[in-house]
Design goal:
By secondary structure, this protein is of the alpha/beta class. It is built from eleven helices and 13 strands. It has helices at 15-21, 45-53, 65-78, 94-108, 124-138, 143-155, 167-171, 177-186, 209-223, 240-254, 266-272, and strands at 3-8, 24-26, 29-32, 35-38, 58-60, 81-86, 113-118, 157-162, 188-194, 200-207, 231-236, 258-263, 277-282. The longest helix has 15 residues, at 94-108. The radius of gyration is 19 Å and the shape is globular.
């Protein structure tokens, strides 16, 4: 019997964290030419973006209740306490599917202690929240403190993204054809955030790739807090060179020193395309820093 923390692959949690903490990451399904793959398990970003560029038919669907049942079952059998940090309900139906599985498991294992948290975050937004939770557990925090901190970090997590090309937002229905055509002709790059409801929304339009990246960095300063002391999440769609340039801008402009970096995984990358750049950070100084010193 033990307290276990679990997340899913849409968190884009770096491999070194998964290995260091033995983190269980439930993979999101990705369908390539009608064949099912699993993000971070049987398909990986390093190969996925080449497949995406090739024009193959790619779809995703959220982790369903049967998959959650199978992933949660070993913990229920073992009598473990479980915290699952979930992809935003504003983007996918993951949270509802996880709760269906929980209901089924409680019929068989009525003492199973499972807390499901809707992060209302995406990518390294809830990857960071997961990382903080793991560090708190390592430092000896109680389950109640960890759950409280996960909610706090998710509520204060700011996400801003920009994309390199508009085709994938169009395919995913997040951009009209008229806007996509006009945007491509004028080299318009949207600035996208995860709003309070956990949904992806475009909040600004900037002309040109360089200006869109510069605007992302400016917005971090406008909206973030205690930037030089917190861990900044940086995610990219197979464009590590651009990500490195953004990191250098953050260092020079705000004195940022601590970063968590990874690819935008297959589950999200299928809908945003190669070249997406995202920055995730807290908009308020963390009350839980004592656990990370």
């Amino acid at each position: 019997m033990a307290l276990k923390i679990v997340t899913d692959s849409a968190s884009d949690t770096p491999k070194w964290i998964i290995e260091k903490y033995g983190l269980h990451v439930i993979p999101t399904p990705v369908v390539i030419d009608e064949k099912d793959y699993f993000d971070g398990e049987t398909i990986f970003p390093e190969k996925f973006y080449d497949i995406l560029r090739s024009g193959k038919d790619i779809k995703t669907y959220h982790i369903n209740s049967a998959m959650f049942y199978d992933n949660f079952l070993p913990y229920a059998k073992n009598g473990d306490e479980l915290i699952y940090i979930c992809f935003s309900t504003g983007i996918a139906g993951t949270f509802n599917a996880a709760n269906i599985a929980k209901t089924e498991l409680l019929e068989e294992y009525p003492d199973f202690d499972l807390t499901i948290i809707d992060s209302k975050c995406a990518s390294l937004g809830f990857g960071l929240a997961t990382y903080y939770a793991l560090r708190m557990q390592e430092a000896g925090a109680s389950k109640e403190e960890i759950i409280e901190a996960i909610h706090w970090h998710c509520e204060h997590m700011d996400h801003i993204f920009t994309v390199k090309i508009l085709d994938y937002l169009l395919k995913g229905g997040r951009l009209s054809k008229t806007s996509a055509v006009a945007g491509s002709l004028l080299d318009i790059k949207p600035i996208i955030e995860i709003n309070d409801a956990g949904a992806l929304v475009a909040i600004e339009k900037v002309r040109g790739r360089h200006k869109s990246l510069k605007r992302l960095v400016e917005m971090v300063g406008e909206r973030g807090a205690d930037l030089s002391n917190q861990v900044i999440g940086l995610a990219h769609g197979d464009d590590a060179e651009t990500l490195e340039a953004v990191k250098e801008m953050l260092k020079e402009k705000y004195g940022c020193e601590h970063f968590l970096e990874n690819y935008v995984g297959c589950a999200i990358g299928a809908h945003t395309g190669p070249g997406i750049i995202g920055i995730m950070y807290l908009d308020e100084e963390s009350s839980y820093k004592k656990y990370f010193i």
